[in-house]
């Protein structure tokens, strides 16, 4: 695995869960947090301006529905979908995502493995 740095953006409206994501993501040194959005309208702008490599996207969030952020953004980062309602994600949205993480996060390895998958995809 290379030492290249990758940037990620968190789109999540639960401050406590944001802190959990930050702690887990700190275990992957190649990943650099470039921003946090607690609403999708702000997030859509940030995606196009900051051009993150990876997006941690909560589906149920204020503003647009999570997947609509990807539809209106020109930049298409690799996306890890986060939701406490997996059935909703699968039935209601067509999202091109690398991994799905269910809330609450019971296993940090699940997120770390998803990030490593993103890194591998980026390197190939």
Encode the helix/strand succession as letters: EHEHEHEHEH
- Per CATH, the class reads Alpha Beta
Q: Which fold name corresponds to the CATH topology? A: Rossmann fold
What share of residues is helical?
A: 40-55%
Structural domain tally: 1
Structure, described:
- This protein is α/β, with parallel strands linked by helices.
- It has five helices and five strands, in the order βαβαβαβαβα.
- The protein has a single domain, classed as Rossmann fold, CATH 3.40.50.
- A five-stranded parallel β-sheet has the order 2-1-3-4-5, sandwiched between helices.
- Helix 2 packs parallel to helix 3.
- The protein starts with 5 loop residues before the first strand and ends with a helix.
Briefly say what this structure is.
The protein is an alpha/beta fold. The protein is built from five helices and five strands, in the order E-H-E-H-E-H-E-H-E-H.
